[in-house]
Design goal:
This protein has 182 residues and is mainly alpha-helical. 55% of the residues lie in helices and 9% in strands. The chain has 12 helices and 4 strands; from the N terminus they run ααααααβααβααβαβα. The chain has helices at 4-12, 16-24, 26-33, 40-46, 53-60, 68-77, 88-98, 100-103, 110-113, 124-128, 143-151, 164-180; strands spanning 81-84, 106-109, 137-140, 155-158. The strands form 2 sheets. The chain has a two-stranded parallel sheet with strand order 1-2. Helix 11 (143-151) links the parallel strand 3 and strand 4 (155-158). Helix 1 (4-12) packs across helix 2 (16-24). The longest helix is centred in the C-terminal third of the chain and has 17 residues, at 164-180. It starts with a helix and ends with a helix.
């Protein structure tokens, strides 16, 4: 979502830096992504009415980081979850439309769970299922979220730029399989 502030600002006639600050302000960020504020709070704060679904899709322009077929391949070898700081109104339609919803085992969105990364509680639902942190590989685009995951004993990689991070997932899955078959 790096270009969201620019698109939302252009639509609202607002300053992109002001929109960026809004989305990174810890008080607003945690309340908004955590679901304490309604989706409309963002649009109102940038000065536009809540857009219809088609306009929202155009403004948000969310796309998968990776081909859903590759995620489905990972899911054939391990449980794959999406634990996202996001609005369910924004993310779930994208996951459904792109096939990612079918390629993963579970989707946990902060606006419905009330848990916003980097707070370790964001992973509580995963750990609540008895998963050992050493058996978790986290992919995220925010360093602070990766640091939090690592502090819990999880392996983590930054998903930016090219798909080298996906190759790291492949390598980790292969190593897990080798360790399990020994």
């Amino acid at each position: 979502m790096p270009s969201l502030p620019d698109r939302a600002a252009a639509r609202a006639g607002a300053d992109p830096d002001a929109v960026r600050r809004l989305l990174t302000d810890d008080v607003f960020r945690v309340a908004y992504w955590g679901g304490d504020l309604p989706e409309a709070a963002f649009w109102e704060a940038v000065g536009v009415p809540v857009p219809d679904e088609r306009t929202r899709r155009r403004v948000l322009d969310l796309k998968p980081l990776i081909d859903p077929a590759r995620v489905a391949d990972w899911n054939a070898r391990a449980d794959v979850w999406v634990i996202s700081n996001h609005r369910h109104e924004w993310l779930l339609p994208v996951l459904a439309r792109t096939g990612l919803a079918d390629a993963v085992d579970r989707v946990v969105v902060s606006s419905t769970s009330g848990r916003v990364k980097p707070d370790p509680a964001a992973w509580a639902v995963l750990m609540g299922d008895g998963v050992s942190p050493g058996d978790v590989f986290v992919v995220d685009d925010q360093v602070r979220n990766l640091d939090a995951a690592r502090s819990l004993g999880m392996t983590a990689v930054l998903a930016v730029g090219d798909l080298s991070w996906a190759d790291e997932v492949d390598g980790w899955l292969a190593a897990q399989h080798r360790a399990a078959t020994r």
